[in-house]
Amino acid sequence: MHGGGAPGGGGPGGGNPPAGQPPAGGKPSDRLPPPPPKDSDNIIKYRGNRTYSENLPLTIIQTRCTRKEGELVCIELLFNQNINPRSVKPDSILINNNPVLPPVRLMFSKKGDSLKMLIPINSNSFKMKVCKIRSFEGTLIEPVEILVEVER
User: Fold this and answer.
1) Residues 33, 39, 43, 49: what is their CA dihedral angle, to the nearest 10 degrees?
2) What pLDDT does residue 45 have?
3) Is the dihedral of CA 76, 65, 133, 85 positive or negative?
4) Strand runs (DSSP E) across 80-113, as ranges?
5) In whole angstroms, what is the distance from residue 86 CA to residue 136 CA?
6) Global model pTM greater than 0.90
7) Rounded to whole angstroms, how far apart are CA atoms 49 and 30?
8) Averaged pLDDT of the chain
9) Peptide bond preceding 57: is omega within 30 degrees of 0, i.e. cis?
10) Stretch 74-102: mean pLDDT, rounded?
11) How far apart are CA 16 and CA 14, in angstroms?
């Protein structure tokens, strides 16, 4: 007669633990992968990074404008969410009602929430309109006009 437990099973007196159970003395981190995020529906991949997606309106939270050399001005826009670089077209940013056209180069941060551009402007203030830009989730920015002062 056998002692208590199932033969060869994981019951009392058996040699192996039941399927799905850690070996005796095993740490929990050794046996199971970490659980997925609770809000996995709101996580998207962007440039190799996992990015949290929110249902918030897309807005500009900061603008910065500094004079570089001569007429060159560096304009930085910081958004509250990642923006889709493909949504930024020449008519998405207007400076004194004129679209930003090549050779002006738009540069996006790795995180995707800021946009930088070098533009020739000889005045110390100008009007900038931002529109038709989408977040990575597809949220369209409400058109906004900003009076920008050039920092020295």
Assistant:
1) -50
2) 57
3) negative
4) 93-95, 98-99, 106-108
5) 9
6) no
7) 26
8) 79
9) no
10) 93
11) 6
